[in-house]
Structure formats: structure tokens, C-alpha cells
Amino acid sequence: MTTWMDLAFSPAVKDVQTRRGSRQGYARMEQKGSATTAIDDNLAEFIAGMRSFYFATASADGQPYIQHRGGPPGFLRVLDEHTLAFADFTGNRQYISTGNLVENPRAMIFLMDYRTRSRVKVWGRARVVENDPELLESLLPKNYQARGEAAILFTVEAWDMNCPQHIPLMVFAEDATGLAEQISALEAENKRLRADLAKAK
Questions:
Q1: Among 3.20.20.190, 1.10.10.60, 2.40.10.10, 2.30.110.10, what is the CATH number of 36-170?
Q2: Computed from CA positions of residues 40, 45, 48, 53, in that sequence, does the dihedral angle turn out positive or negative?
């Protein structure tokens, strides 16, 4: 079974880990074989709530490229325990990710939830599916103003959830609007209770 450590820890990475003192700890993790490869219920639930992620590809000669992908919650779909999918919305039409995948299917999805300070790294292989209107239609979010050009299928090889260290706590603007209203209501209630308490004295 291939784990994320098998994919990420090249000999050069292991050499650095040894030099900086973290190799023994990761070697123990590798021996336990606790790394996850299939999409479980917890990851599926996490993905279902995501409104954006980062999609990394590389050209045949290794030139890396990272692209932001965004949409309403659920636009990144779990098709089965090893497959993710999303609609390739029309954007600036540079097609760098698409071109990279033609010659190098290795890809990565990086999911960041700033509200819960959680991040998930997903290793795998991706391919672009064109001229399949039924698949594309199934991936397009309802009532979302975007046009899909193709579908992207991502085969998950391994994934890992990182610690929340150094992740800033942030909320979406639309969520903050609701919080502001709740705070205003609580402040008004607090003011009323203080006034009632003052009268009681």
C-alpha cells in the first residue's frame, strides 16, 4: 500500500530529516503504516464543505504550477473512495493545468479550511475529460454562475491532514455578515439587561 510518506519522502527528503533530527519520528510513523490512502467519511465531509482549494500540476520537465479553484460548497465531488471530480470552469483560458496534465498526470490538491484551521494534502493523478456533457453536467453546481469547459477526474493515491500550526483563523465575508448581526443583537440584549439591572437597584 502506497502512503503519502512513500510519495513525499524521497531519499533527499529523508537526508534532510536525518540532518535536522526528525527522521526517527517519521520512520516510526512509516512502520506503523497508519497513513490513509482511501477517502473516508471524515474526509468526504470535510471536502463537501469546501468552497476553494489549490490544484498543483507540473509540466513534463518539472515546472510546477498551482492554481486556485473556487465554487460553492460541494463543487469538489467525491465519486468513490479513490476518486474526486470537479468541473473545469471557464477562466482566463491559459490552460496551464490542462496542458500540464496532458504530459504529466501527477497532481496534488491542497485543501485549507481557515474557519477550523484545518488543512488536507491529497496526492494523486488527474486527467481532463472533454466531450462528455453528461459527466460535466453532473459536476456543475446548481444556480452557480459559471460555465464548465471540461471535467477533471482526480485519482487519490494518498492523503494527510496537517496540524493547525500557523494557519490564520479567518471567516468568509458572507459568514461574517451573519456574525455581525448576532453580535449586534447580543449587544442590544446586554444593554437592555444592564438597564433593567440599574432600575432594579
A1: 2.30.110.10
A2: negative
Residue showing cell 491542497: 110
Torsion region of 28: left, alpha or beta (phi above 0 gives left; psi -120 to 50 gives alpha): alpha
| All residues at 6 or more sequence positions from 46 whose CB lies less than 8 Å from its CB, including other chains | 111, 113, 118, 120
Cell of residue 183, nine digits: 453580535
Q: Which residues pair with 111 in a beta bridge?
A: 120
- Residue 102 C-alpha from the chain's centroid: 23
pLDDT per residue as tens digits for the range 16-27 = 999 999 999 999
The domain locations on the chain are 1-35, 36-170, 171-201
Least Cα distance to 146 among 197, 86, 95, 198 occurs for 86
Task: For residue 130, give the C-alpha cell.
Answer: 472533454
Model confidence pLDDT, tens digit, residues 138-194? 999 998 989 999 999 999 999 998 777 777 777 777 776 767 777 888 888 888 888
Does the pTM surpass 0.85? The reply is no
Residue 47: CB atoms within 10 A of its CB come to 21
Beta strand spans in the chain (E): 52-58, 64-70, 77-80, 83-89, 106-113, 118-129, 148-162
- Cα–Cα distance list, 189 to 184, 185, 192, 195, 199 (Å): 9, 6, 5, 10, 15
DSSP-derived 3-state class of residue 141: coil
Is the confidence at residue 131, as pLDDT, over 80?
Answer: yes
